[in-house]
Structure formats: C-alpha cells, structure tokens
Amino acid sequence: MTIPGYMMGSPTLPPAPLKPEEIEEIKKTLTLTDDDLRFLRMSLPIVEAHADEILDVWYGFVGSHPHLLYYFSRRDGTPNETYLARVRQRFKQWIIDTAQAEYDDAWLRYQFEIGRRHHRTGKNKTDGVDSVPHIHFRHLFALAIPVLHTLKPFLARGSHDTETVERIFQAWQKAVLFQLILWSYPYVKEGDY
Fold first, then answer.
1. Dihedral over alpha carbons 140, 155, 113, 115 (to 10 degrees)
2. Chain mean position to CA 13
3. Domains contained in the chain, CATH given
4. 141 CB contacts (<8 Å, ≥6 apart)?
5. Where is the Globin-sensor domain (predicted)?
6. Cα separation of 140 and 130, whole Å?
7. How confident is the model at residue 1 (pLDDT cuts 50, 70, 90)?
C-alpha cells in the first residue's frame, strides 16, 4: 500500500542538517542505547497489531481538544477529514518506524522532513490542503505526554513481564523525545540549535 506523502527513503529529501557526531551526542544525552533499540524492536509486533486502536485513542484526544484539532482544520475552522485521514496513514507508519528503530540515513532525513511539515516552511504542502499554516512549537512537545501515556497500556498487551514492559516504555520515551528534538530543527533560530 502506498501512503500519500510518506517519503522515507526518498532521494529527493535533503541531507540531514546535522553531522553524524551531533546526532550521536543527542543520543548519548538521552541515554538512548542499543539496548533501548532492542526494546523498541520488541514492541513492533504489539504496536503493529494494535496500531489502529492506538490511533483511535490519539485521534480521540486531539479531536476532543479544539486547540489541537485546529491544526487539521480548514481556514474556516471546520475539520478537514481528508487531511486527517492522510495524516493518520503516516502517523500509523510513524508508529511502526519508531518500533523498528532503524536509525539510518533515510530515517534521519525523513525526521527533518517531518519537522518541516509541522513548521510554516512545509505545513500543508505535502497534502495540498488549505489548512492553518503552522503548528506551534509548544504543542509538539506537549503532545508527547498523552501519546506516550496512552501507548503504555497497549505495550502491556504483549506477552512480556512487567519489568520488560517498563523497559519498552522507557525506550519509547527516549525515541519520541529524540524525534521531537530532530523535528524542532526548523523552529530554532539559526545558530541556536
């Protein structure tokens, strides 16, 4: 199945604006280790099996908060169902990509593209929609809490013991924060990132 606007591995994406050693510094600061990647990968069968349910919870949260639904609305304030559906397909793939934990060049380039798509420099261009032109930075990081805390019960649906579920959850926390840091690139004044 082709996901509209999904560009992982696209040769048209520009190179990541950070050097490999800078990416490694971020991972070290987050204490994101190979062991964490192993735990992320352990979550893959669980999140694949429950991705639509997870998205129902996340979309329910966004939809119940007008200040968040605003970012998926037409300029007249009405929700754009087509836009929401397209983003949902990419969001589902994001869950899988996060659990696969393949931090190669294609993944890295795409993370910076995701950041651009939230920022005024790229918002609405992928889907050609007439929506609000920018997602405010404050909501990128704030959404990490509801996303992660509603994900945790799904992680417990696997066959892992409580300690393993907690390690998987900790790995997800680090992975989500890592991605948010990368997505924030277009929001930060040049020289301050």
1. 10
2. 17
3. 20-187 (1.10.490.10)
4. 180, 184
5. 21-192
6. 21
7. low
Residue 75 corresponds to which amino acid? R
Residue 18: is its pLDDT beyond 80? yes
Residues 6+ apart with CB under 8 A from 63: 69, 79
Closest to 165 measured CA to CA, from 173, 177, 176, 157:
157
Return the closest-CA partner of residue 58 out of 68, 44, 48, 71. Answer: 68
- Tokens in use for 127? 């889907």
- Cβ proximity of 73 and 17 under 8 Å: no
Q: Write the pLDDT tens digit of every residue in 55-76.
A: 999 999 999 999 999 999 998 9
Question: Could you tell me the two tokens for 51?
Answer: 């991705």
Residue in the block written with tokens 């990541």:
16
Q: Tell which phi-psi region holds residue 124, choosing left (phi > 0), alpha (psi between -120 and 50) or beta.
A: left
Q: Of all helices (H) and strands (E), which one includes residue 127?
A: none
pTM (2 d.p.): 0.96
Q: Say how far apart CA 30 and CA 21 lie, in whole Å.
A: 14
